[in-house]
Amino acid sequence: MSEYLDTIQAASLLNITVASIYKIVNNDDPAKRLDPVNRMTHKGDGGYRFTQEEIDRIKPFYVKEDLTPSQAAKRIGRSTTYIHQLFKKGLPYYEGEFRGKKTFFIKETDLDLYGTNNPDSGKYDTIYDRKSQVYLFQLYRLGNRLARVCSMKRVSRSKVEVMLQVSTSDRIPLEHAINEGWKPAAAAITDRKAITSHGYAIFEFPLPITSDSVIYTIIDEFFKLIGPANLRIQVADVIQVEVKKAVLTGVLPSTHPDMIDKLKTFIRSGEITLKYDGTLIDTGLSPVTFYLPEKEKEKMIVKAKAANKSLQEWLESTILNTVE
Q1: What is the DSSP string of 295-317?
Q2: pLDDT in tens, 287-322
Q3: Are 227 and 233 in contact (CB under 8 A)?
Q4: Which segments within 112-266 are labelled E, that is strand?
Q5: CA-based max dimension of the chain
Q6: CA-based angle 319:322:324, to the nearest 5?
Q7: Model pTM?
Q8: Cβ(203)–Cβ(97) below 8 Å
């Protein structure tokens, strides 16, 4: 039977495991069943044997040239959830069956074309890249010149696109800036654990005109003393910075009077409290605990989901509206 294929060869051609070969040999659906030439005598023959024609017949059920969502995600370094989000944004796909299950398929050419036509699709703003230790508004220096990181967009788990503002009108990729000789002006920041207390204090800073503005200095201190895991930053007409409850250790009236004055001026939600060892940024929030039947809680969760809010957000809006 040397002209026939054994189970190992069949598995390789179908890109499945040998164990899967035994499963499809006994598939209940005749169309998807892989029929050996020696079904009755395979034990004495040392295993199943198959013709090339039978492998070719069954192959479309188990080998697909087009990409499944997981294969497409792996190809571009993103998650399967991200691929499903692209479907809603216009990435062409079709539904089919693969190895006994219904799934979606994407043509490789469609995936490539979508990426070409939508170069920013899937990118999202970030404020810190742990791998490179670059953070938003980080200061860089080239001789007497100063520049700041002005934009960070995550492309994939391992890649972040970073832009450096080197002059009022000139932005260049950070990798190009580094090749030109730009270097970080200070030591790298260290990761700090996420603070688990609820809520954020909120600051709204005006957009600085110069790279050495005290506004940038304050944000630098937030990154260094509080850590990127405890910050949220949005840039529009102003720079909105949300900060978890934390102490800026060493920031005292005797050492940083201008910084403390700016913190008090631009805080929009929360409180600034001076302590013996630094400046406390407090959210100003306090907990309220109450108990109710489980069924009533479930009703609230349903209403919160219907309003596209978390339970906390829904309770806040509902209670505050009632109080007012």
Answers
A1: HHHHHHHHHHHHTT--HHHHHHH
A2: 888 888 988 888 888 888 888 888 888 888 888 777
A3: no
A4: 124-125, 128-129, 134-135, 139-142, 145-154, 160-165, 171-173, 183-184, 201-206, 231-235, 238-243, 246-249
A5: 92
A6: 110
A7: 0.63
A8: no
